[in-house]
Structure formats: C-alpha cells, structure tokens
Amino acid sequence: MPVVNMIQALNDALRIEMRRDPRVVLLGEDVGKLGGVFRVTLDLQKEFGGDRVIDTPLAEAGIIGSAIGMALYGLRPVPEIQFADFIFPAYDQIINELAKYRYRSGGEYSCPVTIRTPVGGGIRGGHYHSQSPEALFIHPTGLKVVIPSNPYDAKGMLLSAIRDEDPVLFMEPKRIYRAAKGEVPEGDYTVPLGKAAIVREGNDVTILSYGAMLHTAMEAADVIEKEDNTQAEVIDLRSLLPLDRETILESVKRTGRVVVVHEAPRNCGFGAELVALITEKVFLHLQAPPMRVTGFDTPFPYTLEHEYLPDVGRIRDAVKQVMNY
Amino acid sequence: MALELMQVISEKGLVNHKQEPSISDQDLLKLYRTMVLTRQFDDRMMKLQRQGRIGFYLQSLGEEAAHIGAAFALQPQDWIYPSYREPGAAFLRGFPLTKYVSQLIGNANDPIQGRQMPVHFSYREGNFTSVSSPVGTQIPQAVGTAWAAKLLKDPVVVLAFFGEGATSEGDFHVGLNFAGVFKTPAILFCRNNHYAISVPLERQTASESIAIKAKAYGITGVRVDGNDVLAVVKATREAAERGRKGDGATLIEAVTYRRGAHSSSDDPRMYRTDQEVENQTLLDPIARFRKYLEGKKLWNSQSDAELEEEVKSQIIAAVEAAEKFGNPPIESMFEDVFAELTPELKDQQEYLLDHRKRYPRTSEVK
Q: In the annotation, is B271 catalytic?
C-alpha cells in the first residue's frame, strides 16, 4: 500500500467520489486553479472542469448558502472554508439553515453538504488561522462533526461524509496535513462516521483525544509507559457527533481513570461534554475525577502558541494526577 | 438614469395594451381567484389569531399582486424560495388549505409536525422551500439552486422572495454577487412594501431605488408597480425568459405597501398614521385587477359575490378539518434532526416518553 500524507489522502477521496458521483461539486475560495491554499483540491479542476471545481467570490455565507441551494436541488456540494477561523460569516447559514433544513421541513428536504475546513494551531498562524471551534457546531445540533487524525481515516471518513444524507462539518487538523503519513489503500473504502478507534490499548488510564492532539496524546502515552510504568489506553474519537459512547464508556469502566485532551479552549469545550457523560454514566467505576488537558481560555496566541497547546508534559502531569488521586 | 416603473394597469384602471401580457381568460380568472382567496384567508387567520386559535400570523394584505403575480409567471418546474409573506404563491401551486391551517396550529396534520411557528411552512411538492425567520438567508440559497439547475442544464429558474429590509443584509449582497458572477437563472424578487416591522424604506437604503442596485452586480434590474398584477406577471416572465435563455439573473423591485401590521404581534400605530395607510388602500391591487377583468367582460359584481361565498366556505371547511387534529406525537420532536436518530436522541426520546408516562400532564398545553 502506498504511504501518503493527509492532503494526498483527502485529494484522493475527492477524486474518487467525483469520478463515481456526477452530483459532487467542490466550491470555495482558491479551490480551483490553485488547488486550495493547502493543495487538498490540487489538479481536480483539471480533471473535472470549472463547473465542478468552482472558484467562488470571497464570501463564506455565499459559499455555504449556495451549497445549501445546490444540495436542496439534488447535488452533493463539498464547499471548502479556507480556515475554520473564517467560517463565522457563514455561521447563520450553517446553524439556522443547513443544520435545520431536514427538521424544519418535516423531512421534505435534506441538505447533504460536506463542509471541509482546516482547524487547529501549531502552524504559527495566530488567532485567525489556528482556532478549534468544533464545540460551536456540535451544540446547536443538526450537523455531524468529525475530525480525522491520520490519512487512512481522512480518506475513508471523507468518502462517508460526502455519501451521508446529513450535513457534515469535516474538520481537517492542518498541523498534521503533511506530517501525518500512513498506508492508504488506493481504491474506494469508507470509515463509518460515529465510530471511535482504540489506537493504543492499556488498562490504567483512558486518554480521549482527536485530530492533531491525538498524536501528542500518543507520544505522551509512550513516555508515560517508559517513565511512569503506566499503561494508557488512547482513543481517537474521530467523530464528535455522532459520538461513539460505547467505546468510551467501556474503556473508562475498565481503567477507572480518564484524561481528555483537546486544543480548543476548556470553557464549554467538547471535553466538558465528555467528562459529564462519563460521570453520569459510569460514576461508580471512576477511581479519580476526570481531568481535562486543553487550550486555555484565552484567544489563540501567536508567539506563545506552544505554551497554549497541550503538550506531552501537561498530559503526563494530568495522568500522574489521576493515577495518584 | 433612474429606472422607469413598469405598469400595465394604471392607478385609475387605464390599460396600456402595448404592455399587456398574453394570458388566457381562464388563467386571468385563476389569478384573480387566488388573490381573493389569499386576502380572505389572511383576514380569517388574523381573526383566528385574535381568538387564540392560532398563535401568530403574518398577513400579506395589499401585496397579493406582487407575490401571486410573480409565482403565476413561473413554470411548475421552477423553484420558489419564500420569505414569509407569500402564502398565495403556495396556494397557486396547490398547497392544500387544510395543510396550511394545520401548520398554523402546529398539529399532527402539519407536514412539519408543529416544529416551527405559524407561517414557517414547507411545500416540497410545489418546489416551494421551507420558510425561515432569519431575513435574507434564502437569497444565496436560491442562487445556489439556480446554479445547480444551470450546471445540470435543466430549464429551471429559481425565484426568491424577500422584503426591502432584507436588502440591508449581507446575504442580499452575497447572493446578488454570486448570481452575477455565475450568471445563474435566478429571479431575486423584492417586495418593497416600505416597512421592515417599523423601520421605513429610507432607513434601509439611501439608494434611489432597490432595483438600481442590480447594476453594481452586473445583473438586470427592473422596477415594477407591485400593485399591478399584470405588470408583475410581465416583469417576472421576462426575467424567467432571460434566465432560461442563459442571460442570467434579474433583480425585480415590486413597489407595493404593507397595509397590515408586520405580524399579529405588531402595532403599526406606533410608527405610522392611519391616513398613510388609507391613502394606500386607494391603490388596492385586487380592486385594480377587478376593474380590468370587468373591462374585459370576464367579471361582474355577481361573480364577485359568488366567489366571496365560495372562498369563504372553502376556508371555513379547511379550518374545521384542521382543528380536528391534536398535537403531534411526542416522539416526533426527535425525528428529522438527522436522517436517523443518533443514540443520544434515541435515549432522550425514550426518556421523555417514559417520563410522560410516569408524570402525565395535568392539563392540555396548547
């Protein structure tokens, strides 16, 4: 199997689906000739033409609004928002329109739009090129929200997302776009939305993470094993809505200890939901209060971004605390 | 240069035969009938709201020519994106009155199961999309649908209704800009009724007109007398033809007046005089169209009385039929959030059903 990075895997998924399904169109800023600022749509306009890989005016609400109109008519639009930080002009279209269309029309209409958008920091992008706003799209309901952490999942989940009957916010952790490499089958395959993956087995503590932070969590798990003789089980959530509660709860029942790691701010972050879920459902299995290792409740900083982002040391420290509680 | 106001029937009822659109006698009567039905329906629903039988209503009084004329000019395969003051457009396409009254009540016969407040209906069969409260969001969506039809080479045009208040929203700019750049077969139909709740036109724009704004987007702009149904039909037909021929989008400004309150919750005396409204009543679109039909010997006072009666009993029957239904079932609240219930929603649905079994409501909540 060829070894590719996330960008190549995503590009491959888009090409496969565009060849398979003539209803699929891509639209966004710079997605055509340039192939996207991260090159995820590279060369697709060459193969499928300007009517299916569409460079749009610079207007997020227009990109999402018109994608909704296309989807209602029967197309499968895959709009790109260049950075998740720029998604907010389209927030009304996403939250009040896209995410509610099926419900408010009593199922008369559906809106199968997959919004692709790069998220996360660690690329020296400052506040406007680094945020992780996933919680803002989970809370209002009606959207599936997923974040792959490796090329295999990226390809398989993107194919699932485009084929899904519901709108999906497909978040791409940009810090590992090129850094995360792995074997990816050449043909068509899917990874279901709503299934977490146990990426490292262990019986002492459960670490829940997703996206770029999954890699930091894995590094931490190695250090913790070597240095602290603690076996961490690491779960890659992959899909935040729908959430694979079963895998999470089964693991925590076994380990009795849990640390949640994400780079989004702590206050009302997705970690809060995970911790609440765990305490509600498996309280008596817990040996220690769950801990969160997250970004801080500040705007995303530029120079000090590596202080802001959770790192191996902070994860290790949290694990120590739950182990020694 | 200022855009001329397109007119076929003048305020005094004089017909400009050069501008008269070709419409069969039967269709003229259908158009008139729908306008009368809509006015009576609106009137009846405002009364039901006052009696507490429906929770809220938005009437289209005085704007019947604008929205029904526009819908009439389209083909059945064409799509309509409503704002929230165009019930006649749906009636013209066959939206059953009983379904609509059921939606206004929010009962089990409501196609959307009481999920939205009154007037926010959806009518897929009539290529009529779902009404949403946020103003102007339908404009880029309509442009997207028109764009999709163009990509698929379908002979479909898409019309979006909105008020002049919506032209202040970013989505208006965004939608018109996309419509111009991608030359989509869209008709952006502005019912300029001069009020966005209490805020008058002068507070929405300093532009000499709404229609003139089309120029900046590279699309056609047309200004039409929105109280003259034949002028509206003509302007919309021409816009549809432009769209179908590949000549792109049109912004139509139908100049009309919102004679009623914004909604059943509004009190227009706080911001305008009765005299102002009285002056507008003289421009009534239904009276003007009736004169035209009478001039063609298609109509007389007796047929009017008969139609009034017929429409009235139709509305009464629809209300009676709709009021027989109870609330939608509790489980329906959780459906259609997604194509399938997520495990969380399934849990919450089961929880509520179980809770309600253990703690029945002591009184019926309306």
A: yes
